[in-house]
Amino acid sequence: MAAKKAKATNTVALSKDQFKDAIVKHLRSTCGTDEARANNQAWWKATCAAVNELVFERLTETSKANAEKDSRAVHYLSLEFLMGRLTVNNMHNVGVFGAARDALADLGKDVNDICDEEPDMALGNGGLGRLAACFIDSLATLNYPAVGYGIHYEHGLFRQEIQGGRQIERPDSWREYGNPWEICRPESIQEVPLYGYVETVFGEDGKMRKVWHAGRQIKGVPWDIPVVGYEAKTVNVLRLWESKAADFFDWDVFNAGGYIDSQSEKSQAEAVSKVLYPNDESEAGKELRLIQQYFFCACSLKDIIRRYKRNHSDFSQFSKQAVIQLNDTHPTVAIPELMRILIDEEGLVWDDAWAICKETFAYTNHTLLPEALEKWAVYLFEKVLPRHLEIIYEINRRFLEDEVEAKWPGNDEMKRHLSIIEEGETRMVRMAFLCVVTCFKTNGVAAMHSELVKEDLFPEFYELWPERFVNVTNGVTPRRWLLACNEQLANMYNETVGTDWPLKLDELKGAAKFADDAKFQKNFMAIKREKKVELADKIEELCGIKVSPDAMFNVLIKRLHEYKRQHLALLHILALYRRLLENPDYDMGPQVFIFGSKAAPGYKLAKDIIYAINKVADKVNNDPRIKDKLKVVFMPNYRVTLAEKLFPAGDVSLQISTAGYEASGTGNMKFALNGALTLGTMDGANVEIREEVGDENIFIFGMDCDEVKALKAAGYNPWDYYYGNPELKAVLDWLETDFFTPGAPGELASIKHSLLEGGDPYLVLADFESFTTQYTAVDVAYRDQKKWAKMAIINSASVGKFNSDRSIEDYVDRIWKLEKVMPN
Ligand code: H53
């Protein structure tokens, strides 16, 4: 179906001709070239500069309005912001996408080619970082005063290449040739101390003070990225800190001929913001990572306090003016840092400083996985942040002696159990405990997850302070994940339910009444097919694999982790392949499985799974016996920009984590919004998606969380499943042969071993049969295209709840208590 022209969904701030003039002007004045000589890179930068004329004006108006009103603001501290590209999104939000596209067309340029010049801003690993990006989009859209704080990594998440089926990591240099969206703010540079020792001094008044003599200083240089709200009333700021050597130069070393040595200070300082740690959901435990965390927290707090002090002479109003959201435990060190500033630098007494901290910080928990719950070795803290360790000890002493003692008198075991300091061979600081002890709210990210946070993760803390625990179910921005990435469906909705849905996603509900309408179904499915054709072209271009857009597209895109169970999908593919080989008439519609996933570079089994997927793909895709009924694709370098092509093209959204392990998931929401049906477990936000779309429009399989717990408690034995299911046994044994790796038997055996000798910690074998059975039901349903269309429409129309604007309103209501500020 040809894309219908978008109705004006928001104010067009520039006409096509004005936009054309602006681009041409910037080609010359900003890029130093002209229409005849410019390459696409220059066209892109000139286009951004034209958009920025509007963006920067709104940015200034927003900061003026916030300063004038002196309004309460949220400060979202996050080590990750997975922004992706900004150009198309910003053009949509400013309301000039159509004008820009037409202006570029008049100038002989295709808007997509020009926007393809933009590298992804991949300053995050996966779900947590992308959530932060959606949240700042929603905060700006809803006109809430907010600042995102993070690190200006020189290198974002590695670029993934696949060589011989294996993942190879390459550096990501997203700003090598300049980035038109960021503004350096040297006027707001901060200095951050590190290392050294703490001295106890007594003043003339006889009062004791602590003085931290730092061993080193580094400089934090802020870069501001404008965050453009939809319809661009508000443009907030994402402030990212770059580390630099502090402003002194070791002239002695230099003059003595040690030029190289004098550079080492510089390169050590710059190492702090050099690269994003590529581990999703597992802590690195490395000194540099702790320094990264402290660096951005210290810079951000100084920035917050500087702004506060413009209008206030003491700290009595601080927690009324500022709320600080800790995105996971990564920014926890902000807590002892604020205590340190208030006590050591501002002269407050402990109780007053503590009261302020307790009213200022709130904490979001994103995972129950033990390996993701950060702990720092005490000796490392002592070395890098000696004063902070003292403060943590004192917070812990008061907590144990006052609150735990009051609740469980004389119970030393409980004190040991709840202590922020874990005893053992290496004493550790439990960062999540420090968060819960301090923060006025702790939230989980989906209804089920928030229950598990209370019941399983922090049960005693919940007993102490039940009122502190809340749920805020995650969401995704419909501007990026429907309006911008699926223009065709967006236009269809504009015509069906009007143009307010990018702000009020619940309005899509109005389309559900057409779920049975033949014409509507036809148009809806035609759009899906168009998106599948686009993806099929991309697959051929990137992977050299031909897939038919008429096949059912099963998509599994997320970070690679055992709990996400990509290997369950792989075993299932092997089972289908076997069935086809054994019975060429095996009744199954044509199937394509599409994977996209990065593995942490040090996660051996995850990398082995990628290799296995690629090796199985090689074999399956080139086996004439199965007559193209099954295809397997691994798309390299999965990232936001690729995701924007994959979500609109999926028929089946694979959400197959072990129940109880995926805190929420957000890809599940993006798929449903774009009309894919979920084949998933009762995990994370799948549970709430089911509530919204109805049991008859989702395919649930596998054990639920209680069953998982019960099986584990009873003593799970994967061998029972291996011997109990001949098909499962056959596919596992297949992995040990050289069928997929000719001449190299055993190359894929690590997967089998992890599932048998390794004990199968995520119950892949236990859920295998249920998965294959439910998959057959999906295949049957897909072949009834009318029925499928109806279910797909209902999915897309029913997931208004998962708008990140709703998440933000929940945060405001339950935690942040903000008021909107309308810039002029
Ligand atoms: O956070 C997402 C959730 C998802 C969860 C993810 C996450 C990370 O991406 C990284 C670390 C971490 O602790 C959790 O796995 O389920 O949707 C946003 O809340």
UniProtKB/TrEMBL annotation:
Its cofactor is pyridoxal 5'-phosphate. Transmembrane segments: none annotated. Its EC number is 2.4.1.1. It catalyses: [(1->4)-alpha-D-glucosyl](n) + phosphate = [(1->4)-alpha-D-glucosyl](n-1) + alpha-D-glucose 1-phosphate. GO terms for molecular function: glycogen phosphorylase activity; pyridoxal phosphate binding. GO terms for cellular component: cytoplasm. It comes from the Bacteria. The modification N6-(pyridoxal phosphate)lysine is found at K670. Keywords: Carbohydrate metabolism, Glycogen metabolism, Glycosyltransferase, Pyridoxal phosphate, Transferase. One of its GO terms (biological process) is glycogen catabolic process. Belongs to the glycogen phosphorylase family. Phosphorylase is an important allosteric enzyme in carbohydrate metabolism. Enzymes from different sources differ in their regulatory mechanisms and in their natural substrates. However, all known phosphorylases share catalytic and structural properties. Allosteric enzyme that catalyzes the rate-limiting step in glycogen catabolism, the phosphorolytic cleavage of glycogen to produce glucose-1-phosphate, and plays a central role in maintaining cellular and organismal glucose homeostasis. This is Alpha-1,4 glucan phosphorylase. It comes from Agarivorans albus MKT 106.
